[in-house]
Amino acid sequence: MTPELHTIRLTVNGAAVSVQVEPRQTLAGALRDQLGLTGTNLGCEHGVCGACTVLLDGRTARSCTLLAVQAQGRSVITVEGLAADGERLHPVQQAFAEHHALQCGFCTPGFLLTTIEYLDEAPAVDSDAIRQRLSGNLCRCTGYHNIVAAVKDLVRRQAAP
Amino acid sequence: MRQVGKPLARREDDRLLRGKSRYLADLAFGDQLEAIVIRSPFARARILSIDTTAALAADGVVAVFTAEDLVDVDPALTRQFYSLTPAFVERHDVFLGPYREPILAPGRVSRVGEPVALLVATGRAAAEDAAELVEVDYEPMDPIVDPLEAMAPGADPVAADVPGNVQASFRIEVGDPGRVAGTADRTVSGRFRIGRSVGSPIENRGAVGVPATGTEPLTVWSTTQIPHVLRSYLADFLRCGEEDLRVVAPPMGGSFGGGIYAEELLVAFAARALERPVRWLEDRRENLGNARHSRDQIIDARLAYDLSGRFRALRMRIVQDCGSANLFGLTLPFNIASHARGQFAIDHFDVEGLCVLTNKTRNTPVRGAGRPEATFVLDRLVDMAADDLGLDPAELRRRNLIPAGEMPRDMGMLYRDGAPMVYDSGNFPDQLHTALEASGYWEKRRLGGRAGEGNRARGIGISSHVEATGLGPHETARLEIDDSGRVVLTCGSNPHGQSHATTLAQVAGDALGVPYDRIETRFGDTGLLERGGGTFGSRSAVTAGSVVHSAAIELRRQVLELAGELLECDPADLDIRDGLVSPRGVPGIGLGFPELAAAARDRNDGDGSGLSAHDEFVPSTVTFGSGTHVASVAVDRETGVVSLTGYVVVDDCGTVLNPMVVDGQQHGGVAHGIGNALLEEAVYDEDGQLLSGTFIDYLLPTATDVPDIEVIHRPHPTPLNTLGVKGAGEGSTASAPGAIANAIVDALRPLRIEINEMPITPQRLVELIRAAEAEHMVGSAGN
Q: Which terminus of chain B is more exposed, N or C, with fewer CB under 10 A?
């Protein structure tokens, strides 16, 4: 039995794309397998660890528990969309490097996109609020200390007049 | 400019931050097939029949392998991970029974999740659909889930060749603990239970088997910490030579403990049989049920001391729940034993260690591997003794720490590698003093136990540990200058987040006079290096660092000799700076590595530069790092929820190669220890069913569970290697549980609760609080 395929059109990292997917295909699967965007990592596939976080119309979403067909007509940003090849890193990526906010790097794409969404809300400098906001993403390597420091630095720089 | 010791930026980050790193699941191997493992749903059962007919007829299914199909291979893992010296076996009364772990279950299963069949299909979805069609007829039997029941007379054997279920045991005796404990003024004792936890890297395991081609041998790509060891197990299994195999560990999404797993072997078997690449990717439920379980001991311990507070004897009995098979032999309980006395002078000491089989997932060493368990028990005993004596815990600790002047100190026993166990370096009293000052201990202690806001009581706790690091048997590296003049570093220790490409390049760069970011690094490929150890047990900075250092010094000698010939001068008059060989005192002019490589190539008739140094480091034994932690907590007496409000780490890992990287290891280690202390537990029910198969049930610490962590380095370089390096990867996991437990007890001081179990979940803590409150009320009434 060959499963029925759906053609979906969406914008990924600013480019219009069209992909054929099975109804059960996840957004993460479509990004990784059909579009070759393997920067989106799968850690738990049940929506807890946050490694697969992408931006969907500017808001964070777990691409492992979202069906690809649900992204029809919408805009997706993945980690590959933050800085073009050979270009300077995005300021959030840069801050993570400066603060040693990644070790194995597997959870990092999810943290980057979560941070970008957070910064868009022009938050105040508040460590507890930052920790709350990051608590939907799991990291086993860093103990979060340096991730919080990187985000705090970004918030502070953004808040500075 | 010296590079070692500086917080130089990581070279790994750019690729990782751009999402360009290629983890195992990101790799594609042509017409690869997807495998899934069909696993036992029962903890103990006979397999009456397996019918694969319907599955084989399903869309996309290529093959289903069961135990019957494993012909011309070794059907079980039987070689223990570590070997022991005869002297060690004799000295510590070691019994080591057989280890046997079937690759696919042959007629019976002994744990939930045990691989029963491997189904291979054209895609993952097709494989999962068809898996339901494999009909396995099981006859369930009563499992043994509790190790004490497993040891009881008449208990059924979990493994047929291990009657009585004690698969391994040892006994350590230092001094005269029986007599001394019997005559000491006071003792405290307890039964301590260490919960079973799971290593839980964010990347699950995975492996790909790629069949041999005309030019490449049969290759296994795996999320392994030990590619060379895996190759040797593959050779055993497939009954072929190691030269007929290649193992590659791609970039990994963390790894906190390892071993050898059936799945890594099965993909090779399937790829060879089907002549196509076969990939297996684990899902999280499989990982939480099958991979890298650890801890899980019952430890009876007794500390004897004088009224002056001087520790006299420590006695301990460790029951290690190994699960259904024990690849690692004595490792976990012996690690507990060898770290049990921590930083204290305890001259009389005995331990009995028992490795017991049960119908649960196999236990492996995970970050800390015995150290957190040992440290938790000792930290608790010390604070119990302090309470008994009416002394502040810090003061009791101070009185018993090994003085700096007594280092190195022979601990009167052998380490697991067979060498006398010696604390080689460190200053424990200074560590304690520094930690107390940095944490504001005395002020907080004065306030301890008093309610803070609402029902939140505040407390502070201390832990100190030692950490045997840099375990052998060996590590290998090659440093060479390629045709273009680029320095290439190849090492047998492969990273999974530890920053080898930065720190090892710093070491090589200093020796060679080349900036670290101009050194290319290669890891994790047996095709590149004949021998290698791997990354485990806080060993890489020590073993890989040392061999990279010595190889770089040899390459430097070769470079200077060649430059001396070309410049017609004594090599001793030359120096290398910034990748340029110059006469001493005349920097900025001279020969660059590209010119030297070209000259060397000409000399070799075009056959490479020949500038290459290959070396192997064989450590004499482990070197002991150490640390002292102070945790501050707030405890909600109503809900039992514990919040960390402050955390100080004082660490001694010897020479610090890169403080930014070492701090990161400390932060991560503390977080792992917080998870073990408060949150993480792999829970089995009485039927041997795992109840914690998702990240909703198995709780990893999140950003709100971990406080800001202050790390202070007080390095005392070891004399055991040229760099003076001691490992740093695991010590912080060791101390977090004890520090937190002691802080909770301090916060609840008026209730005088005892914590002897981890994780300290809100439920457990509420039970302790309620029980203590009830007793308190009865006590008050009685008075």
A: C
